[in-house]
Amino acid sequence: MIRYLLFNVAILSHFLTFYSVSYSAEDKPHHVIVIMSDDQGGWDYSFMGNPVIDTPNIDAMAQRSSRLSRFYVSPVCTPTRASLMTGRYNYRTRAIDTYLGHAMMEPEEVTIAEVLSNAGYATGIFGKWHLGDNYPMRPQDQGFQEVFVHRGGGIGQPSDPASGENKYTDPTLFHNGKEKEMKGYVTDIIFDKALEFISKNHHAGKPSFTYLAPNAPHDPLHDVPNELLKKYQRRNVKQIIVDLEEGSEEQLQEIDNTNRIFAMIDNIDDNVGLLFQRLKELGIYENSLVFYFSDNGPYGDRFVGPHRSRKTFIEEGGIRSILLAHWPERLQAGNVNDRIAAHYDLFPTILNAVGVDLPKATQIDGIDIMPLLDNKTENWPDRKLYLQWHRGSPARLYENGAVISQTHKLSFPKNGGDAQLYNLIDDPAELNNLAEEQPDLVNKYLDDYNIWFEEVSNTRPDNYAAPLIHVGNEKEPTSVLTQQDWHNVDGKPQGWRFGAYGNWPVYFEKTGLYDVRIKYKKENDTAPVELTFLVDGNSMSTNVKGSLSEHTFKNVKITEGNQLVEAEITENEISRGVHQIFITKRQN
Question: pTM of the predicted model, to two decimals?
Answer without folding.
Answer: 0.94
